[in-house]
Amino acid sequence: MNAVHCPCGSGRSVEACCGRFISGEPAPDAESLMRSRYCAFVLGQEDYLQATWHPDTRPADLGLDATPAPQWLGLKIQSHTPLDDNHARVEFIARYKLNGRAFKLHETSRFERVDGRWLYVDGKIHE
């Protein structure tokens, strides 16, 4: 990881922001995990994405090696809703470009804390 701004949009360096979670520090809440997972998509950190995906819903392959790869443009957290100590929802919009066309992914994701670590469970895509 280098000292460039974190892709999650926090304005901090990768090391001071999502890089520490990608390097193994547990995310303190679901929003931090969501931001770090976006950062991992941008940086191609498939191991981290797999490790932070709930085992009951984790796919065998994420397809990060697909070509052409999307160019991630930005993340906006719409809301972070803790449901209880171990469950939360995060609504976000991630913008990207693919084959010269701009797209957005608008999703409400479910997260669960298992053994002290937040994991992505699944998400509902908004049209």
Automatic annotation (TrEMBL):
Highest taxon in the source lineage: Bacteria
Pfam families: YchJ_M-like
Transmembrane segments: none
Chain ranges of the YchJ-like middle NTF2-like domain: 29-123
Matching InterPro entries: NTF2-like_dom_sf, YchJ-like, YchJ-like_M
Leader peptide range in chain numbering: none
Family label: Belongs to the UPF0225 family.
Protein name as it appears in the record: UPF0225 protein GZ085_13605
Organism: Sulfuriferula multivorans
Species classification: Bacteria, Pseudomonadati, Pseudomonadota, Betaproteobacteria, Nitrosomonadales
